[in-house]
Amino acid sequence: MKVLIIANGEIKDIQKVKAMLPQVDYVICADGGVRHARELGVVPDLMVGDFDSLPDEVLQEYSMAGIPIKRYPMDKDKTDMQIAVDTAIEMGASQVFLVGTFGSRWDHSYANMLMLYRLARRGIKAQILDSHNVVMVSSGKVEIEGEIGQTLSLLPLGGDVRILRTDGLKYPIVDGILPLDFPYGVSNVLVKPRAEVHVGSGWVMVVIARD
């Protein structure tokens, strides 16, 4: 099952993100993400969160339209995004796409990015789709599709990462370490429309630029 989660972060180019959206089986809106859903032309299958950033009349509108709404207290341990992600996990999602993930609050952006790790360590493929970037996290084989000349970065997540080999990149890595405090994996370049990164140990974050 493919699940799209729309959060309440910034989407600077709605049309660009709309063109990136894949076909999915289920859509979850986290809190005010429903406003982005409207602009994207997407109807949610479920709305979750404390809804502190959404007017009651909007909630009532969707409730009257028959959209299931799960409301949580504002004082809670999980963020609205994590509630949505955990819902997707419980549903048996095989792939999850996150939209509206980044914004002016860096702590929220980082917490949302960590949801990629939460999903990946459970064997669920996941991507953040942003106006300027596509972000993935993996501890195994990463397959990357893009255009020749497109920039991407390989960054360690949580500790040093051992890369067994890469294919299709201008600056190859063969049996190399990406240290947590030495991000030399920034700004590599695709030399093939399809590239691969094979991770031996640790978790790598792949950021594909779409500027």
From TrEMBL:
Superkingdom classification of source: Bacteria
Keywords, in A-Z order: ATP-binding, Kinase, Nucleotide-binding, Transferase
- EC numbers: 2.7.6.2
What is the scientific name of the source organism? Caldicoprobacter faecalis
Q: What is this protein called?
A: Thiamine diphosphokinase
Residue ranges of every copy of the Thiamin pyrophosphokinase thiamin-binding domain listed in the record: 140-205
Keyword Transferase carried by entry: yes
Does the UniProt entry include the keyword ATP-binding? yes
What is one process in the GO biological process aspect for this record? thiamine diphosphate biosynthetic process
- GO MF, one example: ATP binding
